[in-house]
Design brief:
Layout lengths: L3 E4 L2 E5 L26 H5 L3 H32 L8 H8 E6 L7 H7 L4 E5 L5 H4 L5 E3 L9 H17 L5 E6 L2 E3 L3 H11 L9 E4 L19 E5 H11 L9 H11 L3 E4 L3 E3 L18
Parallel strand pairs: 3-4, 3-6, 4-5, 8-10
Antiparallel strand pairs: 1-2, 6-9, 7-11, 8-9
Length: 297
C-alpha cells in the first residue's frame, strides 16, 4: 500500500519510499518513516521555497502567540493592579492588623492560632489567671460576664461587644477576631499574605466587614452573611458602632452571628468575604436548645 503525506502539493514523507512530484518537479526516493513528518529535514528541503517560507512564518506566528499568552496575564495584572503587585506583606500585616482570639480558658486551638499569628495578638478570655492563658505570654483581655444574660449566645454577644470596643480604641486599622476552634488553611507566612491581599483598600475607605470563613474575594462586595462568627475582620473606625449595636435590647433567642449581620447592616458596613480558616469540628459552646425564631433577621 502506498501512502504519502503531502503539504500544499509537495510530498513530505512516505511509508513505502515513493515520493510524488510537487509543483516544482523535485523528486526523492529516500525511504523515510512517517513519524518524522514535517520534522524531516530532507523532506522540508524538497519543498518549494515559497512553501518552506510559509511553514516558517506559521511556526513564528505560533511561537509569538504562545509567548503572548505566557506574558500578557502578568503584564495586565501589573498594569491594572500595580499597587498590589509587589506588596510588603510583613510590614502591612504588622502595622495594620490586630488579632483577637476569643476563648473561654485558652484551650482548644488557642495556642496554635496564637503561634501562627504572634504579631500583636491578644487573648480574650473569661479568666486571665488561668495557667493555660498565662503560659502563652501574650496580652490578655478579660471580659466582664453579663450576669443578666439568659443564654450563652447573649453572653457571647456581650463579650464580642467588649472586643469591638477595645478594637475601636486601638492603634491598628483592622481587627481580626477569631474563635478558638478555627484552623488556618495556609502556612503562617501565606496566611499573612492572604489577609493583606484581601483587605487592601483603594480609596482610603475602611467601611468593610470581612467574613474570612467563607469563599470569595475581599475586593468585591458580597451579600450580608449572618451565619458564622468563626473569623471576622472589622475596622477600628466602625468597631464602636458595632459594639454599641450589639448591646442593644434584642430577642432573647438572638444568635450571636445573626446579630453581627444585623449590626453590620445598621452601621452601613459593606460585607466582603474570603476564605482564610476552616472549622475544626469541635462542638459549639453555645449550648443552643431551642430553634431560632423565624422573625430574627
Amino acid at each position: 500500500m502506498h501512502l504519502a503525506l503531502k503539504f500544499g502539493g509537495a510530498a513530505i514523507a512516505t511509508v513505502n519510499g515513493t515520493v510524488e512530484n510537487g509543483p516544482d518537479g523535485l523528486q526523492t526516493d529516500e525511504k523515510t518513516s512517517s513519524t518524522k513528518g514535517l520534522l524531516d529535514g530532507k523532506a522540508l528541503a524538497a519543498m518549494h521555497p515559497s512553501q518552506r517560507s510559509r511553514i516558517l512564518i506559521y511556526i513564528f506566528i505560533l511561537l509569538t502567540i504562545l509567548l503572548f499568552f505566557r506574558s500578557v496575564p502578568s503584564f495586565l495584572y501589573r498594569f491594572l493592579f500595580n499597587e498590589t503587585s509587589d506588596l510588603n506583606y510583613s510590614q502591612l500585616f504588622s502595622k495594620r492588623l490586630k488579632t483577637y482570639i476569643m476563648t473561654h480558658d485558652c484551650g482548644r486551638y488557642t495556642s496554635s492560632l496564637a503561634t501562627d499569628l504572634s504579631d500583636d495578638t491578644t487573648l480574650v478570655t473569661d479568666n486571665t489567671s488561668d495557667p493555660q492563658c498565662t503560659s502563652l505570654n501574650l496580652p490578655l483581655l478579660q471580659t466582664t460576664l453579663n450576669e443578666q444574660a439568659e443564654n450563652q449566645d447573649q453572653r457571647y454577644i456581650a463579650k464580642y461587644s467588649q472586643v469591638l470596643t477595645a478594637c475601636s480604641h486601638g492603634v491598628k486599622m483592622l481587627c481580626l477576631i477569631l474563635e478558638d476552634d478555627a484552623v488556618f488553611l495556609h502556612t503562617p507566612s501565606r496566611t499573612r499574605e492572604v489577609l493583606v491581599q484581601n483587605t487592601i483598600t483603594y480609596h482610603f475607605n475602611e467601611d468593610s466587614a470581612y467574613d474570612c470563613g467563607k469563599r470569595g474575594n475581599g475586593w468585591f462586595p458580597s451579600s450580608q452573611t449572618g451565619l458564622g462568627s468563626l473569623c471576622r475582620i472589622y475596622s477600628k473606625d466602625k468597631a464602636g458602632c458595632m459594639a454599641g449595636c450589639l448591646v442593644e435590647p434584642k430577642h432573647p433567642l438572638s444568635h450571636a452571628d445573626l446579630e453581627l449581620m444585623r449590626c453590620q447592616m445598621k452601621c452601613q458596613l459593606v460585607q466582603k468575604r474570603f476564605l482564610l480558616v476552616q472549622h475544626t469540628g469541635l462542638p459549639s459552646t453555645m449550648n443552643r436548645q431551642e430553634e431560632r425564631p423565624k422573625d430574627v433577621a
